[in-house]
Design brief:
Blueprint: E1 7-14, E2 17-23, H1 33-40, E3 50-55, E4 64-70, E5 75-76, H2 80-94, E6 98-103, E7 106-112, E8 117-124, E9 146-147, E10 150-151, E11 154-157, E12 161-166, H3 175-183, E13 193-201, E14 204-211, E15 215-217, H4 221-233, E16 240-245, E17 248-254, E18 259-265, E19 267-274
Parallel strand pairs: 2-3, 4-6, 12-13, 14-16
Antiparallel strand pairs: 1-2, 1-19, 3-4, 4-5, 6-7, 7-8, 8-18, 9-10, 11-12, 13-14, 14-15, 16-17, 17-18
């Protein structure tokens, strides 16, 4: 931080995937990983899955820059639910029905939809082993991993790495036990988000997620996108489906151009300020 004044924030969530959002467009903000983790702590901080910093646009083609930090303080390139939350904030501020957000994963287009929903084009699904990334050349349709009842996941990058396991009953998987080891498996040099997915019907998927750097969360937008892409690649669904998460549903479509569209609700929980003592 550049001064000791209280730091304003907004607490938002997309289907229970929650964020502490800071606006650094007019006030410079630099947080250490330890400070991010302190803010994200659910007992001694504000509590969140990810911390988001909105910065000024870095070029002439976007409305703002978005930085994303996991609860453990690590920075990541993509977060679908956070993108929808930030898109909603920026559109409310400007009165426009569309917005372009710049991230480490690239430019993401957001737009408002009826019923308070927000749609975001999450960019192309990347399927090459080098893009995920993996530690060695592997067929990303069959990664060959095995952990308890989980086996043979599909690898997908949505700007961050995902391994999607298809199971008969997503509720029965002990993801809290299996998630950490899979996240840190040697095959994933940048770690990975771990999804377990149950095909409910040709256009419905039940998914639970262990998020890299955050653990089990109620929803994961990039995870929902990766899961739909994985299911379609396996021939288990079409290229469009409702993904049912612990916190609700997202509509996901893998477009003909390879981009993945995500539509869902956003909500603001409360606003406040961070005391300087939390950031020591």
């Amino acid at each position: 931080m550049t001064d000791a004044a209280p730091l304003p924030f907004i607490k938002m969530h997309g289907l229970g995937n929650d964020f502490v959002v800071f606006d650094a467009r007019s006030r410079a903000l630099s947080l250490t990983p330890a400070q991010v983790a302190a803010i994200a702590h659910r007992r001694t901080g504000i509590g969140c899955d990810q911390l988001i910093v909105i910065g000024p646009a870095r070029g002439n083609v976007s409305d703002a820059w978005m930085s994303i930090f996991n609860a453990d303080g690590s920075e990541v390139a993509a977060c679908g639910n956070a993108t929808r939350c930030v898109a909603s904030l920026l559109m409310s501020e400007s009165g426009n029905k569309s917005v372009v957000i710049e991230t480490k994963a690239g430019l993401l287009d957001g737009e408002s939809r009826e019923g308070g929903l927000v749609a975001v084009d999450m960019g192309p699904a990347r399927l090459d082993w080098r893009d995920i990334p993996l530690a060695e050349p592997v067929d990303t349709l069959h990664l060959g991993l095995l952990a308890g009842p989980l086996f043979d996941p599909v690898g997908v990058s949505m700007g961050n790495p995902h391994a999607v396991f298809f199971v008969d009953d997503a509720e029965a998987v002990d993801l809290e036990r299996l998630g950490p080891g899979l996240e840190h498996h040697d095959l994933f040099p940048a770690r990975a988000n771990i999804e377990v997915a149950q095909i409910v019907g040709p256009d419905r998927i039940r998914m639970r997620v262990w998020e890299r750097g955050s653990g089990i969360t109620m929803a994961c937008g990039t995870g929902a996108c990766a899961t739909l892409v994985a299911a379609s690649r396996r021939g288990l669904t079409s290229r469009k489906a409702q993904v049912i998460l612990d916190g609700g549903e997202l509509a996901i479509e893998w477009l003909p151009d390879g981009h993945v569209m995500m539509i869902g609700p956003v909500a603001t929980a409360f606003a406040g300020t961070v005391d300087k003592d939390l950031l020591r």
